[in-house]
Amino acid sequence: MTQDLTTAADTRPDGPAPWRPTRTVAVVLAGGTGSRVGLGIPKQLLKIAGKPIIEHTITVFEAAPEIDEIIVLMAPGHVEAAQQIVDRAGFRKVSRVLAGGDTRNATTRLALDALGPDDCNVLFHDAVRPLLSGRIVRECVNALWSYAAVDVAIPSADTIIRVDADDCITDIPVRAQLRRGQTPQAFRSPTIREAYRLAAADPDFHATDDCGVVLRYLPEVPIKVIEGADENIKVTHPVDVHLADKLFQLAAAQAPRLTDERAYTEELTGRTIVVFGGSYGIGARLAELAQGYGAQVFSVGRSTTGTYVERPEDVEKALREAFDATGRIDHVVVTAGILETGALAEMPESTIEQMLQVNFVAPVTIARLALPYLRQTKGQLLLYTSSSYTRGRARYALYSATKAALVNLTQALSDEWSEFGVRVNCVNPERTATPMRTRAFGDEPEHTLLAAETVAQASLDVLLSNLTGQVVDVRRAGA
């Protein structure tokens, strides 16, 4: 660390002054043009999992309690597009969206100018690493209390070779000593400023990252390495877009719990919730829970109200009756489903048709008919998937396939409906003790199953959150 300790020798403290930053700033570096992706627009503006890549990235820092401010450095000519994303998402920590430079190092210099003169922590992160975790952000910031420079890296799973101009091997370094660098890279601002000041005087200056600048020009400064994550990939090539999209699909969000019972009552009193499939199981428990907190719940189902979700006229009637009674619909929940097991080739046509209609066509119909009501309240549609959505399983292929379709529907509609302020999420519960599961698999050990009440509580938390386009896992404690 370099600090200005210009006090007289007899008054200088025994050690360096303790580090006291005024704030912690995340700088999102989005200056790339995406030429290697080959899609004609900057790669950070490509959509994955229903949102632009840069929006996913900013969201991580927005949610991180360690971050006080976010500055975005965008590719020249696309600043307005980035600003629109920031405004639409309502990011409160983003203070500025600025044009980046011609190179990574030039963009860093612009960011340092934007920070101002105060001593602060600064994290530089590639905008096209949208799968950054809160854990990495937290550990980087914590490390800055002890180190002036911090990098993020993961061990190399591959053997690394060094070659000459003819592509012949000249060396095979010891893999245990090698790491693959990621971002963010974090610094105490005086350190990175000094490194770039020295670099500016070097006519041969060139570095591919900011830690490299510190390593070259301030070799006495230790650079602490924080463990990264395999999923913290950089979207650089076309295949990376598909990989990131799949990783987002498999990643599970968590809905925050409210502080106490009174908070739930304050949030839910006066809201209207329509639950399709509320006759029993998760839907019934959710309806009971929400009613207990003061919500007006209209729970409909085949066995209780004679509502068949596969019939558009039944769906429209249920929605209209709820709206006529309360003047609003805030949330629409679809827990209705059919689980029939057996080999697909041996399954009766009538069973196939019913499963497709109830498990997929019905949620599509409900979504279409519910949108006009949800637009008025900027409400939420909540769907349900199954752990089988990630990989189809023998003897319930149709169930797995329809549950995978609901995940895709969730992510697509969250994008389509974002302009209306309507949120769409999907709950993915572990095996749950419901009558539907008992009919399909018989009695199972109670300790291996989630209680329907647990899933209902998690569902309520999702409804009260700002999440959208997310698959929210619900697991047994300790599982």
From TrEMBL:
Residues 1-20 are annotated as: Disordered. It catalyses: 2-C-methyl-D-erythritol 4-phosphate + CTP + H(+) = 4-CDP-2-C-methyl-D-erythritol + diphosphate. Keywords: Isoprene biosynthesis, Nucleotidyltransferase, Transferase. SUPFAM superfamilies: NAD(P)-binding Rossmann-fold domains (SSF51735), Nucleotide-diphospho-sugar transferases (SSF53448). Pathway: Isoprenoid biosynthesis; isopentenyl diphosphate biosynthesis via DXP pathway; isopentenyl diphosphate from 1-deoxy-D-xylulose 5-phosphate: step 2/6. The keyword Membrane does not apply. The record marks R175, K234 as: Positions MEP for the nucleophilic attack. Pfam families: adh_short, IspD. Its EC number is 2.7.7.60. It comes from the Bacteria. The record marks R36, K43 as: Transition state stabilizer. Gene3D superfamilies: NAD(P)-binding Rossmann-like Domain (3.40.50.720), Spore Coat Polysaccharide Biosynthesis Protein SpsA, Chain A (3.90.550.10). The keyword Nucleotidyltransferase applies. PANTHER family: 2-C-METHYL-D-ERYTHRITOL 4-PHOSPHATE CYTIDYLYLTRANSFERASE, CHLOROPLASTIC. Catalyzes the formation of 4-diphosphocytidyl-2-C-methyl-D-erythritol from CTP and 2-C-methyl-D-erythritol 4-phosphate (MEP). Belongs to the IspD/TarI cytidylyltransferase family. IspD subfamily. Belongs to the short-chain dehydrogenases/reductases (SDR) family. This is 2-C-methyl-D-erythritol 4-phosphate cytidylyltransferase.
